[in-house]
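Work through this:
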Amino acid sequence: MQRLRHFKKQFPSNSPRCAGFRSPLLLAFAVLALTSALGHRFYNAPRLDVGKAATQTIYAPASATVEDARATEEKRKAARKDSISVLMLDQAANQQIYQTLRQQLEQGTNLRQLAGSFPIVPTSVLSLRTQSYLRKLSENDWLTAQSLLTAVPSTRSARPKPTPGAIDPQVTAELQAYRQTSDIAAAFNLVQTIAQARFKYLTAIGSLPQPETPDAKSVYNASLFELTDADWQQTQTKVLEAAERILAQGIPVGLPESLLQNAVQIQIRSWVPKPAEPLATQLLLTSLQPNLMRDDEQTRLRAEQAAQGIQPEMVTIQQGDIIVRLGATITSEEFALLDHFKLSRRGTDWSSLIGFGVLVSGSIGVYWLVERRFHTKLRQRDRLLICLLTLTTPVLIALRVPSTNLPAVGLLISTVYGAPLGITVTGLLTVLLPIGMMLDWSHLLSSAAGGLLCGAMAGRLRSREELSLLGTAVGMLQGGLYLLFNVASGVAWYTLLG
């Protein structure tokens, strides 16, 4: 007892020499424990596996029909990937489109109010063509038109000779005919009405919105003022109805503009007045946006239905037939037969397991270097705790938990021992896990990203609010990456029909 007390006094439990006695034991425990837990795939590994050369010619001991599980799973994976995405209407996008379209129509109404009502006078007085023509005349030509309306009627039948710069002959004839059948007061009233309409028209033309860039195309131009009030009212109603039909059919992301333009033209054809068709087309093309979004749940269900619809790949062999010849590379079908007859020689792959142990030892060496650089006062009990915490990840995977706990590992180690150790342990586990265990890459990478984020940020947390924000960020990161890795590319093209 005296010698034992003397030894404890000479070598206390926290002395460097005592730590030196226990470090090799802890190192050996860490290497053996991690290699054993992480090297799960090497315990029941077949010696005769797909892609390996057969060491002898093997015959079937009995007749059998066996499922080629690997080929079946490959076909099911392809079916899941090739499954068409299910789309659903984005109601928020629809509301935004309707709001934009109504704003555009309201802008057109305001511009037309600046230009005044059209037609200016009843068409029994002057035709629409003449009224439109008079509004756009230059000032000099308008003076000529006024003189025709206010001139004293001539009894001569000879027509006036055309002069350079004269107004349209058809308009001239119509103005002269009106003057012949109207008194001077009516003619002056008509001149005054048209003059006011010309002023409003020029004001409205100056108020037309200009394109932001030279290549951009404005929705409205002077053609807006060529429509009658009745035509404009009908155009507004029919444009909204056409937008409703198109949006009900759906516009997918990436739809070529030419297809959308054809669909719009089909929808408005014979629905709006002929002069308003170009304007209505431009209104819809500038307002319509994709309104179809991916329905992840229905897409997953459809992909799974497509996968389950794949019939299992079956391999049939008769007793005495050759399964694989000496030196031949083993195929998936041949391995299914070998495994069925227990001829694949499953057992512990010691060479691979030892090599994996060397890789684990190297990872522990990397961890040791990081520890010496950033955390020199770590105790043996702390190292043991980190080792045990690391072992929880392969244990959970072995228990078929659908995801790893890398974010929890990174969070705990970083909170207690600092960000460098948290990032190092998480990163090394991310490298070792796919080598020693069968893992889904989407689960591994999304969980690893969350673990690295926790490892980098947990050591800086100072309040519960910051912890909750970190948890939210990790959840969003993992969910986003998982969807990114699992979303099948390609969206069905939809042709919008009338």
